[in-house]
């Protein structure tokens, strides 16, 4: 659709390139595993899960990547340190060269993950998710003491959801921050930052989230993406519609998937380099959808002088 005047940085993380001009590299898709109510998990606190079912889901994603050329990562979500360790060990057993995001609602679990991947020599594959305005001093310290050098840098600005407000969160900081998140990240050894636009709900900044995809790449030239599935996830009207259908007087559970996939596709068409697309169950739908977006981006930017940096692309393979 367009190319940036700003030079674009490309990182290689876990075997896949992320960043660059639209049309140069395929979108990298990050699945969520072991999240709340993920059907493979049998005990979230102990990290017990059905390994055969989890591996089956993972292999579907790998197969789809081979089919569509889209890259893939694994977003590992854990409630406890014990669970995080088991999930990381499993991931490295079945995908020893593939990147994984370490994620938890509990800071101490994320900090443990940074320490653990350093101890086992897997820090180069780990992406810390995330550093943001609410990160505690001890969390920054834990990252600095680890060998982790990649992190999702979440640009959520609670006092200003505009594109400008999000850019300022990265450059000068927001309320309560002495400096921008990019400077803080660099100080603790994050040399491969992945900008996250912070996807907000409709009416609360969703449009600015999408605009920030373009704004961030144009301003910083760094790999940019996020989790746009959060846009329909947080849509109150849609949640009720799924359950009741409103005036239809029947539930419409199937409505969520096209809205979720659509949010990812919108982000892709405006240049997102990576997308945390949500539950891994969606892989059979999201990979073909994003391959279509990659083809459109490659075709449209060819006229602008952008050349694909991959020998085989979705355009050459699927069109």
How would you describe what is shown here?
The chain has 319 residues and is of the alpha/beta class. It has one domain: Dihydropteroate synthase-like (TIM Barrel, Alpha-Beta Barrel), CATH 3.20.20. It has 12 helices and 12 strands. The protein has helices at 51-68, 81-94, 107-119, 137-145, 163-171, 181-187, 206-220, 230-233, 236-244, 256-269, 283-302, 314-318; strands spanning 10-13, 16-19, 28-33, 41-43, 48-49, 71-77, 100-103, 126-131, 150-154, 192-196, 224-226, 274-279. The strands form 3 sheets. Strands 3-6-7-8-9-10-11-12 form an 8-stranded parallel barrel, surrounded by 7 helices. Helix 7 links the parallel strand 10 and strand 11 (224-226). The longest helix is centred in the C-terminal third of the chain and has 20 residues, at 283-302. It is globular. The two termini are 18 Å apart. The model has no long low-confidence stretch (mean pLDDT 97).
């Amino acid at each position: 659709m367009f190319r940036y005047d700003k030079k674009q940085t490309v990182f290689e993380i876990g075997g896949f390139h992320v960043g660059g001009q639209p049309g140069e590299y395929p979108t990298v898709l990050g699945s969520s595993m072991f999240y709340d109510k993920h059907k493979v998990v049998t005990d979230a606190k102990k990290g017990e899960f059905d390994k055969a079912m989890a591996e089956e889901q993972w292999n579907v994603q790998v197969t789809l990547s081979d089919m569509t050329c889209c890259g893939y990562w694994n977003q590992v979500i854990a409630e406890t340190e014990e669970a995080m360790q088991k999930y990381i060990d499993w991931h490295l057993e079945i995908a020893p060269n593939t990147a994984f995001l370490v994620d938890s609602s509990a800071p101490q679990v994320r900090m443990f993950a940074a320490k653990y991947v350093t101890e086992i020599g897997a820090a180069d594959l780990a992406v810390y998710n995330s550093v943001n305005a609410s990160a505690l001093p001890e969390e920054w310290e834990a990252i600095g003491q680890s060998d982790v050098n990649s992190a999702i840098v979440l640009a959520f600005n609670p006092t200003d959801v505009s594109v400008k407000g999000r850019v300022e969160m990265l450059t000068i900081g927001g309320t309560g921050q002495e400096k921008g998140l990019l400077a803080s990240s660099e100080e603790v050894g994050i040399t491969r930052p992945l900008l996250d636009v912070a996807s907000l709900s409709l009416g609360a900044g969703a449009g600015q989230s999408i605009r920030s995809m373009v704004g961030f790449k144009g301003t910083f030239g760094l790999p940019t993406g996020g989790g746009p599935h959060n846009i329909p996830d947080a849509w109150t009207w849609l949640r009720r519609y799924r359950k009741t259908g409103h005036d239809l007087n029947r539930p419409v559970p199937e409505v969520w998937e096209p809205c979720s996939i659509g949010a990812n596709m919108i982000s892709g068409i405006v240049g997102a380099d990576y997308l945390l697309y949500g539950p891994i169950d969606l892989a059979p739908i999201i990979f073909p959808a994003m391959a279509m977006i990659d083809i459109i981006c490659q075709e449209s930017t060819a006229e602008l002088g952008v050349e694909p940096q991959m020998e085989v692309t979705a355009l050459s393979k699927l069109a």
